Amino acid sequence: MKSSHILLLLSLASTGAAAFELGAPKNNNTDNLVWTGHLSPDTDSVTSALIAAHIYGGTAVVPEGINPESQFVLDYCQIAAPKPLNDFSQKAVGLVDFNQKTQLHPTIDESSIVAIVDHHAIGGAPVNMTQVTPIDIRAWGSAATILADRAESLDIDLPAHLACTTLAGILSDTVVFQSSTTTEYDRYYAKELAKEAGIVDLKAFGQKMLEAKSDLSHISAAEILTMDYKNFSYGGKKVGIGVAETLTAQQLLDRRNEFVAAMISYKETQKLDHLFFAVIDTKNKRANLLWIDDIDAAIAAKAFTGQPKQGWLVLDGVTSRKRQIGPAIQGAIEGKK
């Protein structure tokens, strides 16, 4: 498939060292190279690190522990989990699935970043590099899709277990093609990867992933709050947005008091200006939004039109933090809404 996309190469300032090349892996120095996603890694972040390491060399790592869905995927695809890395100093670092300082492991020096492959907007507080750094950002449904395209364009074969995990990254971030962020490229590469992985029914595989993600009954509210969580900088304010995608939304909605207590504690300890949490009902395609104080209530009132129910704001048709929840909150905080 010939993709029509814009490859954004940001050459900020030359340091004299050879720049990393996303289009010519053999030219790169991979000594001490690691590939990592954002804090609170999700399945797209984990699987993108794996395929990036396969294409470009280096080692896939995670900055924190992985979630139940990601563990299910790794077990299903029969591949070892990337090792957690607590200290990124002395490492050359490739970033996948994010570009924000607020989501960067605190030990990563921005001068050590050699490449970024992402599908999110460059807004808020992007990493600030003084070295020549290739950045491939496309408005596709997942970073895994972009890297699958990279592998195809470079004529790099993926073993079945990596085809499997890369497929999972696409299915996870597009919510099995239900998300508004889904593109024709996501659908195309999902089908191709399913063939390579020997997965006959990719939607059935995606359903199993959703079920693995949905079983949160044994996990505390504090853990769920930060399991799929990102910090943003909007209008100079530190904003946290956590989401939990689930087929069994009512189980989480019934735990509202637990989430309120967890959010009060987290907002104070992290010194956040704003904090929101959404239970994404993937079965009924809607978000249930929660906040804990009048300041955030005012932001939510500007950002959304929804129906309150049992202490949650119900947002029909809202399923994406990247495309819907985050931009709406950003617009409200920055006075653009």
From TrEMBL:
Gene3D superfamilies: DHHA2 domain, inorganic pyrophosphatase (n-terminal core). It comes from the Bacteria. Residues 1-19 form the signal peptide. Keywords: Hydrolase, Manganese, Metal-binding, Signal. It catalyses: diphosphate + H2O = 2 phosphate + H(+). The keyword Manganese applies. Its EC number is 3.6.1.1. GO terms for cellular component: cytoplasm. Residues 206-333 form the DHHA2 domain. Its cofactor is Mn(2+). SUPFAM superfamilies: DHH phosphoesterases (SSF64182). One of its GO terms (molecular function) is metal ion binding. This is inorganic diphosphatase.
